[in-house]
Amino acid sequence: MRISDRGRGGEGRERITLVPENVDDLWHLSHVLEDGDRVSGDTTRRIQRDDENLRDKGGQREHLFVTIGVDDVEFARFANRLRVGGEIIGCSREDQLGRFHTLNVEAHDEVTVEKRFKPDQIDRIEAAEEAAENAEVAIATVEEGEAHIHTVAQYGTEERFSATAPTGKGEYARPRSELFAELAEALGRMDVDAVILAGPGFTKQDARDYVEETQPEVAEKLTVVDTAGVGDRGVHEVLKRGAVDEVQTQTRISTEAALIDELMERIATGEKVAYGISEVADAAEFGAVKELLIVDDRLRRERQGDGDWDLDVNDVVESVEQQGGDVTVFSGEFDPGRQLRNLGGVAALLRYRIQ
Predict the structure, then answer these.
(1) Do 216 and 149 share a domain, yes or no?
(2) Is residue 148 one of the residues assigned to a domain?
(3) Alpha carbons 326 and 348: distance in angstroms, whole number
(4) How far is 89 from 96, CA to CA, in rounded Å?
(5) Which domain holds residue 336?
(6) Averaged over 210-215, what is the pLDDT?
(7) Using CA atoms, how far apart are residues 1 and 111, in angstroms rounded to an integer?
(8) Distance of alpha carbon 231 from alpha carbon 229, whole angstroms
């Protein structure tokens, strides 16, 4: 994320001009925007002609600069765009004011957001700006007969390659080299800065040797890590151990994996923890919250008034921050966020027990 400009808007609002540089930045922005915010940017719009002599039912597309009063935000992950819909409250053509329009924001599009930013939203934007220098990382996990490749993004991990090839003896067994070849070729096609090769036993070492022989450029990016599993389980182990942090100085999901593991361990042993909005709100009121954990989509829903919590989530967040606690907003698209969602979408690591 690149911040082009910051200033004051009307009625106490702050104005920030941003340039999202990748799909991660679009995802971050989707969790900053709320109903009633103002978003401005360049767009095209089909203009209907009213001239009796020029009856063009289809209309013509014109380039416009619009300001949208936000009432709908959709992160279209697989389309690599953010859709921001609402009423046009400012436009380079006055006859379009009051009409509904969807602003399609893609990577490298400059937009201006005007709103009363909350502290965690400013933190999110600034963290995305700092993350622009992070390395792009792939995690390859391999064991006998099975190999996977996941890419690491700030919104979660995504499987990009999966292959099974029974090895050993038997009618359908294949040489190990065939599995290694598929894995090496897939890695060779990926544009990443680093590759973590993980898995149980010695299979990953043999896979590394094969990659060194056939894909020397990929081999230069390799780091080998021991894990007990492969696939999603192996990826979680890699993140938990902080292996990604060695090649990518800041990755939110690595932190989330460690926090959710600590939370689940505390729950299992009956240590200082609260989960569910009622328990967490009580703990915040007593100043007992050391670390507040909340899922991004739940936070957004509650802030927009679409949730079912009977209190203001902003009051809880502000109470924690005012009393020196930290707030971590989890990605709902990654396993730690899904685990947290199953606990009600919010939990807290406490300084001391409150019961």
Answers:
(1) yes
(2) yes
(3) 10
(4) 9
(5) 256-350
(6) 96
(7) 12
(8) 7
DSSP state of 178: H
Q: How far apart are CA 256 and CA 251, in angstroms?
A: 9
Which CATH number characterizes residue 91's domain?
2.30.30.870
Give a yes or no: residue 178 inside a domain. yes
Question: Residue 48 half-sphere exposure, CB side, CA atoms within 13 Å?
Answer: 6
Is residue 355 in a domain? no
Amino acid identity of residue 291, one-letter, is E
Q: How far is CA 53 from each of CA 49, 50, 56, 60, 93, rounded to the nearest angstrom? A: 9, 9, 9, 15, 21
Arithmetic mean of pLDDT, 104-121: 93
The CA-CA-CA angle for residues 343, 347, 349, to 5°, reads 135
CA Rg, the chain, in Å? Answer: 24
What are 157's two structure tokens? 């991990």
What's the whole-number average pLDDT of the chain? 88
Dump pLDDT digits (tens) for 9-42: 888 999 999 999 888 889 899 999 999 999 999 9
What's the pLDDT tens digit per position in 231-258?
A: 999 999 998 888 876 665 444 667 788 8
What are the Cα distances from residue 286, in Å, to 314, 325, 352, 355?
16, 12, 10, 11
The pLDDT value recorded for residue 305 is: 80
Measured on CA atoms in the order 228, 230, 231, 234, is the torsion positive or negative? positive
Look at residue 139 and tell me whether its pLDDT is greater than 90: yes
Question: What b-and-e string marks burial along 86-115, b requiring 16 or more CB atoms within 10 Å of the CB?
Answer: bebeebeeeebeeeebebebeeebebbbbb
More confident residue, 300 or 78: 300
Angle between helix 335-342 and 252-269 (nearest 10)? 40
pLDDT at residue 134 tops 80: no
> If DSSP codes are grouped into helix, strand and coil, which group holds residue 179?
helix
| Residue 270 token pair | 């009956």
Task: Please report which confidence band the pLDDT of residue 68 belongs to, taking 50, 70 and 90 as the band edges.
Answer: very high
| Contact by Cβ (8 Å): 148, 162 | yes
Same domain, 263 and 304: yes
Same domain, 117 and 20: yes
Asked whether residue 278 is assigned to any structural domain, the reply reads yes
Token readout for 66 is 């619009």
Whether this prediction's pTM lies above 0.85 is answered by no
